[in-house]
């Protein structure tokens, strides 16, 4: 069965410093992996997705993630945090060929001035 | 292009009462999803429709939850009777189709339900 584990429930960084949000996955075959962001009172928005093409995936707003099969990881990074990045981030795996998404518990990112 | 619309945005009810949520997906999207997001957790799929047919309702508590998408467009999720543990945000999402690979899911803003 597929699942994802987000290793930090809360991450706090200073504006202008790098962001690292960690995610490990469990899947019996090559997974499709996603990162979604959820700002307060707004809908979930897709940041980026991995679907077995390039292992380094670039997303919106300067975010990127690297698929590492040997480590079963799909960590989200950004070189320089902005205040507007403060939000909840979800690592997600898609189950099989259908559309069902399995969400992690979420990581709340705080950005200090 | 208009996004996924949901109403109401907030709802407060007493336990054992009934409540209904409405979702209008993006025009032309054949697949519609309802998720439940309990505070502090990631969303969990309740039910998935392809047009007006149910694809997956394995996580839907069928003794109290029901959902329909009669004309293959908008959808209603109902809870009857509500329990305290149903307090959550109910998210609706839609995607163009459920091909291989499935399209990106677009999420609505959600309905926050509080059961007292």
In short:
With 113 residues, chain A is mainly beta.
Order of helices and strands of chain A: EEEEEEEEEEEE
Per CATH, what is the topology of chain A? Immunoglobulin-like
Our count of helices of chain A gives 0
CATH evolutionary superfamily of chain B = Immunoglobulins
Which CATH architecture of chain A is right? Answer: Sandwich
Structure description:
The complex is a heterodimer of chains A (113) and B (116). Chain A is built from no helices and twelve strands. Chain A is mainly β. In chain A, a hairpin with a 6-residue loop joins β10 (87-94) and β11 (101-103). Chain B has 116 residues and is mostly beta strands. Chain B has one domain (5-109): Immunoglobulins (Immunoglobulin-like). Chain B has no helices and eleven strands. Chain B has strands at residues 5-7, 10-13, 19-24, 31-37, 44-50, 53-56, 65-68, 75-79, 88-95, 106-107, 111-115. In chain B, the strands form two sheets. In chain B, strands 2, 4, 5, 6, 9, 10 and 11 form a seven-stranded mixed β-sheet that branches. Chain B has a four-stranded antiparallel β-sheet with strand order 1-3-8-7, with no helix packed on it. The termini of chain B are far apart. The relative contact order of chain B is 0.33. Chains A and B meet through β6 and β10 of A and β5, β9 and β10 of B.
């Amino acid at each position: 069965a597929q699942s994802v584990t987000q290793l930090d429930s809360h991450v706090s960084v200073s504006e202008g410093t790098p962001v690292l949000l960690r995610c490990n996955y469990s899947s019996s075959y090559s997974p499709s992996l996603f990162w979604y962001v959820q700002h307060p009172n707004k809908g979930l928005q897709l940041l980026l997705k991995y679907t077995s093409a390039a292992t380094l995936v670039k997303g919106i707003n300067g975010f990127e993630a690297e698929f590492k099969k040997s480590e079963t990881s799909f960590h989200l990074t950004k070189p320089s945090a902005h205040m507007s990045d403060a939000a909840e981030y979800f690592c997600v795996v898609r189950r099989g060929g259908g559309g069902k998404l399995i969400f992690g518990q979420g990581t709340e990112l705080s950005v200090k001035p | 292009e208009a996004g996924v619309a949901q109403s109401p945005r907030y709802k407060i009810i007493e336990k054992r009462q009934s409540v209904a949520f409405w979702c209008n997906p993006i025009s032309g999207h054949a697949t519609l999803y309802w998720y439940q997001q309990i505070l502090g957790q990631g969303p969990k799929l309740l039910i998935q429709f392809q047009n007006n047919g149910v694809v997956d309702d394995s996580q839907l508590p069928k003794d109290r939850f029901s959902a329909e998408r009669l004309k293959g467009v908008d959808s209603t999720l109902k809870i009857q009777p509500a329990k305290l543990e149903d307090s959550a945000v109910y998210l609706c999402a839609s995607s163009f189709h459920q091909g291989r690979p499935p399209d990106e899911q677009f999420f609505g803003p959600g309905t926050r339900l509080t059961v007292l």
